[in-house]
Write a structure and sequence with these properties.
By secondary structure, this protein is of the alpha+beta class. The strands form four sheets. It has a five-stranded mixed β-sheet. It has a four-stranded antiparallel β-sheet with strand order 1-8-3-6. Strands 2-7-4-5 form a four-stranded antiparallel β-sheet, with no helix packed on it. A hairpin with a 2-residue loop joins β4 and β5 (69-76). The longest helix is centred in the middle third of the chain and has 71 residues, at 127-197. The chain folds into three domains: 7-125, Sandwich (Jelly Rolls), CATH 2.60.120; 164-305, no CATH class; 321-467, Heat Shock Protein 90. It has 13 helices and 15 strands. Helix content is 49%, strand content 19%. It has helices at residues 7-11, 21-30, 115-125, 127-197, 202-218, 227-243, 253-258, 263-273, 278-316, 328-338, 364-382, 412-415, 435-446, and strands spanning 32-36, 41-43, 51-57, 60-66, 69-76, 82-84, 101-104, 108-114, 323-326, 347-352, 360-363, 386-395, 398-405, 450-456, 459-467. α3 (115-125) packs across α4 and α4 runs antiparallel to α9.
Length: 474
């Protein structure tokens, strides 16, 4: 090899610190030091796994292809971190391949060992350990494939159910408004035909059209009335219509009130069209106003659908890079949308956002998983009713996201263990005990942040602290 490493240098790497001197001599005879400049791709996913790599200096990042997109899975600058043919000890038929790609973030140096000779030597050094590791790895891989697939399907089903429920409401409203709109347009054509039969003066028709445009323009700015105010105003407009011999004026009074008109406004209509054409003109105007309001309903409904689709895209991060500068509020809001189906009528949501917070470097999709776990647990702790609080703030060089609930609280003996893998307080079959463990690893290990919890009856708060600046080993 071009550069020799002493036993002491090899023993300084945590993987080799307990090897015997003959074992260290074998490693020293077979290792090769390889240097790479920043930006270089060292390993490509799917290539034959021929080498076992240990990082001596510099920083690396690992990626995998998911659905045709490159997803970053690890960044590390830890001396002794190993990549490449990490399953060299597994005796499998056929050629092993690299499970991911490795790229140099900065100039770095690897110590490399050829995978096949290293595997043979490893089996001779540690035969029992090799069998245990091989069995553990294959058992984990098989069970993870089955359980992971089932868990993803269940999570997808729950989120899809909530999203479908939310989409159904505006979609149904748009369908109803469209059907009503068709009827109103047909009514407008009929009333226009009646006016034409009466040989209406062209100047008067133009005045009527001007009145229509003016009234339609007022619909968007119509004041919001209480039920009592609307009832009183409908009575006034209905009385005005009855007083001017408009047939069944009470039937259309609510349309004029919803459009923001008053009895005084109806006087202006009378001045423009006169008594002779008032009945047909008023009904034509009612159709025009209702048509405008129905189109507003359709616009609101389709805008809501578009917003829900946008929230789903933001939540899944399907059109974004895995690691980017993000606004935590977007992730929180999209998660709330996806979990709407679980937020019953008795759950009040309070948002206390600090909108001056800057964007932060993070894996947006993974943080959305954290928000999902924490909000889902908070809702579950409250049952049918309570207050869910989402609060953001800044403490020194960190963004703080606080998710609180008004549930019964977490007992001290449970609070000491809630971040342990597979620990759950839920009945058998209802919880895996992995939600908070995964959240802990995403926040602490992936983002170099912190995840804390304080709890007393009626006030449980999880605090997620995330760094404002990019970390070397995100």
């Amino acid at each position: 090899m071009s550069e020799a490493l002493s036993r002491e240098e090899l023993r300084s790497l945590f993987l080799f610190e307990h090897l015997s001197e003959p074992q260290l001599d074998w490693v020293a005879e077979h290792v090769v030091l390889e240097h790479y400049t920043g930006g270089t791709t060292i390993i490509r996913e799917g290539d034959p796994a021929t080498c076992f790599y240990l990082l001596l200096s510099g920083a690396l990042r690992m990626t995998r292809l998911v659905g045709g997109n490159e997803v970053e899975t690890v960044r590390s600058d830890q001396r002794g971190a190993y990549v490449g043919a990490t399953q060299f000890f597994v005796g499998q038929e056929g050629e092993q391949r690299y499970a991911g790609s490795v790229h140099a973030v900065s100039d770095l140096t690897f110590l490399t060992l050829p995978a096949e000779p290293f595997a043979a030597q490893f089996r001779s050094w540690f035969p029992m350990a090799t069998h245990l590791l091989e069995g553990m790895y294959l058992g984990w891989r098989n069970s993870d494939a089955v359980i992971g697939s089932r868990r993803r399907l269940l999570a997808l089903g729950e989120l899809s159910a909530g999203l479908t429920h939310e989409l159904n409401n505006p979609a149904a409203a748009a369908v109803r408004a469209t059907a009503s709109l068709r009827e109103r347009v047909a009514g407008m054509r009929h009333k226009l035909a009646l006016l034409a039969k009466k040989d209406i003066d062209p100047d008067l028709l133009q005045q009527l059209l001007d009145v229509q445009e003016r009234l339609v323009g007022q619909v968007a700015s119509a004041p919001k009335l209480t039920a009592m105010q609307a009832s009183d105003r409908e009575d006034e407009v209905s009385d005005w219509l009855d007083g001017h011999d408009v047939d069944r004026g009470w039937d259309i009074a609510n349309i004029f009130v919803s459009a923001g008109l008053t009895a005084e406004s109806m006087d202006h209509v009378l001045e423009s069209v006169g008594e002779n054409f008032l009945d047909a003109s008023v009904r034509w105007l009612a159709y025009a106003l209702e048509t405008e309001m129905l189109m507003g309903e359709i616009e609101d409904s389709t805008t809501r659908i578009s917003a829900l689709v946008g929230a789903a895209k933001q939540y899944s991060q399907m059109d974004r890079a895995p690691h980017q500068w993000i606004d935590v509020h977007e992730g929180l809001d999209s998660t709330l949308v996806m979990l709407t189906g679980k937020l019953g009528e008795g759950i009040k949501v309070v948002k206390d956002y600090d909108r001056t917070l800057p964007t932060i470097p993070a894996y947006g999709g993974e943080l959305n998983q954290v928000w999902t776990n924490l909000i889902d647990n908070a809702v579950g702790a409250m049952g049918e009713e309570g207050t869910l609080t989402l609060r953001t703030s800044r403490v020194d060089d960190r963004v703080v996201v606080e998710i609180g609930d008004s549930g019964s609280g977490i007992p001290d003996e449970v609070r000491q263990r809630i971040f342990e893998p597979f620990f759950t307080t839920k009945p058998v079959g209802e919880g895996t005990g992995l939600g908070l463990d995964i959240s802990w690893r995403i926040v602490v290990e992936r983002h170099h942040g912190d995840l804390r919890v304080t709890s007393e009856p009626g006030d449980t708060r999880f605090e997620v602290l995330l760094p404002l600046t990019e970390q070397a080993s995100l």
